[in-house]
Amino acid sequence: MAELRVRRVYGTAQADAANASDADDGLRVLVDRLWPRGLARDAARIDHWLRGVAPSDALRRWFGHDPDRWQEFQARYHAELRVSAHPDLALLRRLATEQGRVTLLFAARDEARNNAVALKAFLVQ
Description:
Strand content: 5-15%
Structural class: alpha/beta
Protein name: DUF488 family protein
Distance between the termini: 11 Å
Oligomer: single chain
Radius of gyration: 14 Å
Order of helices and strands: EHEEHHHEH
Strand order of the largest sheet: 1-4-2-3
InterPro entries: YeaO-like
Number of strands: 4
Number of helices: 5
């Protein structure tokens, strides 16, 4: 499996515009269901947008980025992924096998507790 990284999409987009320092990200994959607010598509430098690997709307709303719900969110999200037959999950697994490095991008403010962090944990287990 490729090296998996997790980054906030806003920070990397600004750094790209400033100095192109994120060239070492490898393949950049947005894993949010919704497009990040205020981010222009042409400035994002995103190779793939895989909405199908994001948590369901119901789970995303339930979590609401509440740190007290983080452990339960991960368990519920991993359960959704285990039963998912979405082609985006199969594509992400294939990309993670074929690429040297894949960076999972997210828009949430909390860099430690978000769906990309939980998705990475799911993929490496």
